[in-house]
C-alpha cells in the first residue's frame, strides 16, 4: 500500500479508499464547535495510543489499533503520536516518535517528517519529543485536553500528557463532551466507510451461514468470518471478540471471550447465533445472524425467531429523527412479549408485563447502541443528553437514551434468550410468575436464544438498513440451500 501522495487510506485494489478529507472535516467540525466556547489562543491536544507489552515479554498485545478519538481527528495509524489543533485557525500539527537508526533493522525504514505530512495531508509535522517546545512557540492561552468517563465501559478517556505540560494552562473539562457529541453524528465520508465495513461483514456472515455444518466447530466458523473480512475486505481487525454461539451457548450474551472460547462443536438441529463485525481503519460493524445449522427451522425455533424478527421490524418502522431511543427499547420489549404470549409462553395483560419488567427476563440487554469508531460508540450519556432510565427493568442496560437524529448510526438488536438464572428468578417472583406458562417455558429451556442485529442509519425519512443478510425464515432457508446467490450483491 503506497499511502504517500495518495490523499487516502486504503488496503489496496478492491478495498474502500478513505479520503483524508474525512479527518480534515472532523477537525473543522471540532474547531467550529469549540470557537464560541473558548477564548484566546486555545489549542486542542490529543494523545494517540501506545503499544502495550504482553505481560513481561518483548511482544505486544495483537497488532496496534489507534485510540479512537485520535483516529477521528487525525487518521494516523502509528502508535506513540500526538496531535494539536489551533482552535482559532484550524491549523493542525502531528507529532510522531523519533527512532534511532537501529529501528530500521527490525521495524522498517525510518520515515522523514515530510513523509508523514504527505501521508496524512497535515502541514505541520514534528517529533513527539518536541511537543512542549512547539506548543510554547504557538503561545496558547490554554490547552484543551480530553478527560471524561465512557458511559459504556466506565473507564476514563486517556488525557494527553507529556514532559513539560505543567508549563501550560490546561482545561480538561470542555473537550470531552464536544468531541463525543460530534462523533455521534456521522459525516458523509464516515457513512461511506460504515457502509463498506457493514457490507464486508454482511458478506462474511452470508458465507459462514453456508459454511456452518453439523460437526463443524464454532471456532472454524469464526475463522471463516475472519478470513473473508481480511482477505476480501482488507479488514485486518474485528471490532470485538467474535461471538460464535451454538445451542445453549447462545444464552450467554457475550459468549466467545477467553473463558468460553468458541470451542463447541455444532450438532444437527441446533441454532447458531453468530455476532461478528469487521473493522476498517477503526470503523466498526456489528451484525448478529441466527440460523439453523441444518438449514431448516423447527416449529419451536421458528416461533422464537419470528417473535424477535417482529420486534426488530417494529423498531425499524418506528425509528426516525425526533424519536426517543428509550421508547424504541420499550416498543421492542412490548412486541416481543406480545409475540411470546401468542406463542403460549406468556399469559395475562401485556401492559402489566412491561411494567413488571418481563421484557428483561427474555431480553436482558438494551435494544441497541451507537456505532462508529467504537462498536459501542461514545456519546450515549454525555452532559446535556437524556439520562439513563431505571424503570421498567431493562432500561438501565440501554447504552443510550438519546433522541434520534439524522446521521446517527445504531444497531437494532432485539433478542430472546432462555437463561436459567433469569427464568428461575421470574418463576419465584410473585409479580412475574403469574405471567409465565411453566410447562411451555420448560420446553424451551436449554435451547439457547435468538438475536437479530442490524446496523442502521438514521435519515430524515427514517431508517436505512445497511446490513445485507437473509432475515426472514424463507430467506434464511433459501440462502443455506444455495438459492438467491445474486440477491445480496
Task: Note down, in words, how this protein is organized.
This protein has helices spanning about 20-35, 70-75, 105, 115-120, 130-140, 175-185, 190-210, 220-230, 300-320, 325-340, 350-355, 360, 420-430, 430-435, 440-445, 475-480, and strands spanning about 10, 20, 40-45, 80-85, 90-95, 125, 140-145, 170, 235-240, 245, 270-275, 280, 285, 285-290, 410, 415, 450, 455-460, 460-465. It is an alpha+beta fold. The strands form 6 sheets. It has a 6-stranded mixed β-sheet. A hairpin with an 8-residue loop joins strand 1 (about 10) and strand 2 (about 20). Helix 9 (about 300-320) packs antiparallel against helix 10.
In short:
By secondary structure, this protein is α+β, with helices and mostly antiparallel strands. Helices cover 34% and strands 15% of the residues.
